[in-house]
Design a protein that fits this description.
- The complex is a heterodimer.
- Chain A is α/β, with parallel strands linked by helices.
- Chain A has a single domain, classed as NADH:ubiquinone oxidoreductase Nqo5 subunit (Beta Polymerase, domain 2), CATH 3.30.460.
- Helices cover about 20% and strands about 25% of the residues of chain A.
- Chain A has three helices and seven strands, in the order αββαββββαβ.
- In chain A, the strands form two sheets. Chain A has a five-stranded mixed sheet, with helices on one face. A two-stranded parallel sheet of chain A has the order 6-7.
- The termini of chain A are far apart.
- Chain B is α+β, with helices and mostly antiparallel strands.
- Chain B starts with 12 loop residues before the first strand and ends with a helix.
- Classes of the chains: A alpha/beta, B alpha+beta.
- At the A-B interface, β3 and α3 of A face α1, α8, β6, β8 and β9 of B.
Chain lengths: ~180, ~400
């Protein structure tokens, strides 16, 4: 694979609008790109023989509300080239007002459930996803719990659960039966 | 006079499989559409055990979260501990001593044997052969006894720390490890005798739930599932971590990607794990199992804490809420080969004491997402065989 400087030149030429930068931390390269251009970038990384990242290891997201970043959310793709055992990270940045980016499902089917998870927990939407619905939380749930503005102990969604009172052990049943 | 057979009018039936079904081993629900006994569509519904482990990780420091990783894959918790410690150490740029790396490898490989024994036993129980389960569980109990001896707990091991291990291998555990490794061939032989050429087992597993090489890559399958489909990728060989490059072992590759091949791959993998364990025990280096205590990552020895003011201050510096070590701003992900496949923790740090974001790459979730594809044109009774071969752990699936 190309080193960092050459990769920057190649990608800046190929994606003049979407490309933001390439960072390196602990020998791992991260490509930063605007959300709407991510599918084109992923397709290039998968099909271009210079890269040949044939395996999508994982999709997740980070909420940058309390941390510096290019936008509020970044969707993180971990790619793997199995022939050379190389990895690269792609970070697609989306804004808070319109958290939407194209789905990676046409390239890898594993994107199906993992994008549903990101949608459920972060509220980032994926266009052209075959079946975008919540996966962990129930369908009537209103919030996205892994966002930083959602408190650790919840917003009291579980406070109105029905409480079953049992009188066994504390007192004997009266003639009317258990209370 | 001629007899005329009228075509039967059929309609599709929807069957609810789970969430509490004896063959699901956890709360899994699958909605199956049936045409007679043939499955036309299977839709898994997950999330029954969702407990927000990742949210919790943002509020616990690096050593505290190790206890949560135990609860994710509760069949092989030590692999989770090691995976998390490796990611945290990459973020902090720590190199643990060789002895600690070797002991981690030993624990991971013993966990792999225990995990595969349970998986094969459970799958056999689901299909209707109870004996295998008992034969496998006998050795698995011995392995868990060893874990108890080393970590103090059978299931919630929490054995790793950032920068090393909770403690060294106790002296009396070394003959126990050798005893375990000597017992394994007999157990494998018993299971092999009961299943490998068993007519019923072959009928129930051969050609069931097949998945091709390309589909396995597209669905992101890893571990024994991918290798059964012919994907030659083992992270222990291709991207070695924790000194795996020191050991000599073979990667087992299947051909057909069906349930039978997954069983065969797992059987041979146990044998290879046993080889690695022996190499670890024969070449176990001496020395400490933790990084230098002066680096302020590791707690000082207990007598020092109780008997010297420097030791006490050191202890507080590590454990107090507003003290402790802080990593630089950045992110780290170290993939490891867990018994189910690629397991890794993606840790993002904003430079504070707690990680900003902890993400598990859960092999159970990603392997389970291929279940609808595997169920295509299978019988309803095959659902149990395929589900067993996936080895879905609900704690890791829903997190």
């Amino acid at each position: 694979m190309l080193p960092k400087d050459q990769l920057t030149i190649v990608l800046r030429e190929k994606f003049p609008e979407g490309f933001i930068e390439i960072t390196e931390f602990r020998d791992m390269l991260t490509i930063h790109i605007r959300g709407e251009h991510v599918l084109k970038l992923l397709r290039t990384l998968k099909t271009d023989p210079r890269f040949a990242f044939n395996f999508l290891s994982g999709i997740t997201a980070v909420d940058h509300l309390e941390m510096e970043g290019h936008a509020r959310f970044s969707v993180v793709y971990h790619l793997l080239n199995q022939h050379e055992a190389r990895r690269i990270v792609v970070r697609a940045w989306v804004h808070e007002e319109e958290p939407r980016l194209p789905s990676a499902y046409p390239l890898w089917k594993t994107a199906d459930w993992q994008e549903r998870e990101v949608y459920d927990l972060f509220g980032v939407e994926f266009t052209d996803h075959p079946d975008l619905m919540r996966i962990m939380n129930p369908d009537y749930f209103e919030y996205h719990p892994l966002r930083k503005d959602y408190p650790l102990q919840g917003r009291g969604e579980r406070d109105n659960f029905k409480v079953v009172k049992r009188s066994i052990g504390s007192k004997w049943p009266s003639e009317k039966g258990f209370e | 006079m001629t007899l005329e057979a009228k075509a039967l009018s059929t309609e599709k039936m929807v069957l609810n499989f789970g969430p509490s079904h004896p063959a699901t081993h956890g709360t899994l629900r699958v909605i199956v559409e049936l045409d007679g006994e043939l499955v036309t569509k299977a839709v898994p519904e997950i999330g029954f055990l969702h407990c927000g482990f990742e949210k919790l990780g943002e509020h616990l420091d690096f050593n505290q979260f190790v206890t949560v990783t135990d609860r994710m894959n509760y069949i092989s918790p030590l692999c989770n501990n090691v995976a998390y410690a490796l990611s945290a150490e990459k973020l902090l740029d720590i190199k643990v001593p060789k002895r600690a790396q070797y002991i981690r490898v030993l624990m991971c490989e013993l966990s792999r044997i225990a995990d595969h024994l349970v998986q094969i036993g459970m799958q056999a129980v689901d299909i209707g052969a109870f004996t295998v389960f008992l034969y496998g569980f006998r050795l698995r109990e011995k392995i868990y006894d060893l874990f108890e001896m080393v970590c103090g707990a059978r299931l919630t091991t929490s054995y790793t720390r950032v920068g090393g291990l909770m403690r060294d291998l106790p002296e009396n555990s070394i003959p126990v490890v050798y005893d375990l490794l000597d017992r394994l061939p007999a157990t494998l032989k018993e299971i092999d005798g009961l299943l490998t050429h068993n007519r019923i087992w072959l009928d129930r597993t051969r050609g069931i739930g097949p998945i091709s090489h390309d589909e396995a890559l597209s669905y992101g399958l890893t571990g024994p599932l991918a290798r059964a489909a012919g994907v030659d990728y083992d992270l222990r060989v291709k991207e070695p971590y924790s000194s795996y490059e020191d050991f000599d072992f073979d990667v087992i590759i299947g051909q057909n990607g069906d349930v039978y091949d997954r069983y065969i791959v797992r059987m041979y993998e146990m044998w290879e794990s046993q080889k690695i364990c022996r190499q670890v025990m024969d070449n176990l280096p001496g020395g400490p199992v933790n990084v230098d205590a002066d680096s302020k990552y590791i707690l000082p020895p207990r007598p020092e804490v109780f008997n010297s003011i420097e030791g006490l201050i050191h202890h507080f510096m590590v454990t107090m809420e507003n003290r402790g070590f802080t990593p630089p701003v950045g992110e780290a992900y170290v993939p490891t080969e867990s018994p189910n496949g690629e397991l890794g923790y993606f840790i993002v740090s904003d430079g504070s004491r707690e990680p900003y974001r902890v993400r598990t790459r859960p092999p159970s979730l990603i392997n389970y997402s291929a279940f609808p594809r595997m169920m295509e044109n299978m019988m309803v009774s095959d659902a149990v065989a395929i589900l067993g071969s996936l080895n879905v752990i609900a704690g890791e699936l829903d997190r």
